[in-house]
Amino acid sequence: MQLLKDRIRKDGKIKEGNVLKVDSFLNHQMDVKLFQEIGKEFKRRFEDEEITKILTIEASGIGIACVAAEVFDVPVVFAKKTQTKNIAGDVYTTKVESFTHGRVYDIIVSREFLGKGDKVLLIDDFLANGKALEGLAELVKKSGAELVGAGVVIEKGFQVGGDIIRSKGIHLESLAIVESMDEKTGEVVFRN
User: Fold this and answer.
1) The model scores a pTM over 0.85
2) Is the pLDDT at 98 greater than 90, yes or no?
């Protein structure tokens, strides 16, 4: 998706430790017009799939998932990282290690919102080590729903996550795959 790649080159910042900061337009301040184009692109890439729900993980995937859900005309469910009083009763839960935060979370989805008969598309902002998508896929499996695929805005192609997800047979669509990035020059190279 050329529009996204251009925006990453223009406004993305490369930090030490292979961190690509895109918080000025993707996951802190959000460019909703860009999100609309992202949603349309996910719809185009998954147009042959029947999708009844979009599942994401708290927090930075929620905005993208909501705009994509509007294009797909389906609800969004997001896995919470902490149990709250709002989530009472039966839940699906699994553990997820966050690359960005360097910690392990229990992620939780109420059984009320995910189950047999649902055809689920996973949506997330980044794919690095694959742990978030693996955890979301595990929740889908536990629920008895069908995992249709996963849509990621930015994949770090030089990390193992994409390979892990694809090796599990999951239909993965990444809108921009970063092949390499250089914090000294600010250069980002994308896979074609």
Assistant:
1) yes
2) no
Which domain does 20 fall in, by range?
A: 2-190
CATH number reported for the structural domain that contains residue 115 in this entry: 3.40.50.2020
Most confident stretch, 60-64, 83-87, 143-147 = 143-147
Give binding residues for xanthine as ranges.
Answer: 20, 27, 156
Q: Are 151 and 84 in contact (CB under 8 A)?
A: no
Give the total number of structural domains in the chain: 1
Annotated binding-site residue numbers? 20, 27, 128-132, 156
Annotated binding-site ranges for 5-phospho-alpha-D-ribose 1-diphosphate: 128-132
Confidence of residue 162 (pLDDT cuts 50, 70, 90): very high
